[in-house]
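TICKET #2291
ISSUE: user wants both folds in one file
ATTACHMENT 1:
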Amino acid sequence: MDPLSAISEELAEIEGQITDIFRALANGFQKLEKIKDSNRQSRQLEDLTGKMRECKRLIKEFDTEVKALEGTNDTNTNKMLNDKKQTMVKELNSYVARKKQYATNLENKKIDLFEGPAEGYAEENVLLASSMSNEQLIDSGNRMMDDTDQAIERSKKTVQDTINVGTETAAALKAQTEQMSRVVNELDSIHFSIKKASQLVKEIGRQVATDKCIMAFLFLIVIGVIAIIIVKLVNPNNKDIRDIPGLAPPAMTRKLLWNHS
């Protein structure tokens, strides 16, 4: 039985996962030694690097669990757990060092592959030039000059195309700017029209309110006149209401004039 299982099932599980990763790392580096292709070596190193990251994470979890159990374990148990953690860290560091060494070797190979052809190509050109006659050298020089002139012409064309594109872009931006200015002016005009319309609506509202007051006053006057006429018709002898022309009885006036004479 695993002694860690008696202490903590979680510690035993973490240790088992770390052991599996160390076994996979050992097999991976053995496989890496047999690979000759640089690209395959790079992919293998990336895979091993991912395993080492996972192992580092598990060791941190192991250390966290050990610290959580320090209060419940005795001194010997805590020492045993810390020693196991240090052993795991040392083994992981050894794989990290091997990975760095392989990475350095791959980088050096890439530099050699990058610089090698250029040096070989230059050396080949020197050998070819030394084996040429003067006429061949002149022809070769003329061809190189023609190639250079063509490259210059292509560069000029590229520059001209770039200038044309820049000119077209500037013209398009100018047109868009003018269009935006027109839109802004139209928005200002619309805003001014809305403001004037609002003022006109307010004036019409005030005028309508005034007209309503006048109509109401006239309506009250008409109602009063109608009321007076009705009262006069119902009670013609009422002295409290002044006579309205055309409503007073004419017979009484004629009788008074007759008696006076």
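ATTACHMENT 2:
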Amino acid sequence: DTNKVRYIFRELPTPPVDAATAGFLVARCAGKDKYFDVVHQLMATQQEMLTSSPRDWLLRTAQAAGLSEQQFNDCVTDKEAVAAMEKRVQFARTQGVTGTPAFYVNDQQILTPGGEGASLADLSTAIDAALAK
């Protein structure tokens, strides 16, 4: 609200990597206005991937976002989109990201000892410190 903090969500597929990569591709193909709706739906329903085929799970989500089966197929087999995803993953790796969630404030990774990623308190402390500069 104050334009002092900018949040950036970066894609980093986690196992099963093929399904996660396809999920991010579907989110991008759905369009900017539906991107986070698709990501949220995939995360909220990821258990379904274990009880049905990953393709069926992804296709249901794609169709719910307005994509046809042909658009879905074209989307997840788009070689340029897959290559671009691989570049994003490589960038994350060069930044030291080894898993999710990973949080950074001004290129400094914020980690809470003994936790997974950063606690909200540690993240808030880092943001407040950066804003105070």
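RESOLUTION: both attachments delivered.
EXTRA DETAIL ON ATTACHMENT 2: The mean pLDDT is 92.
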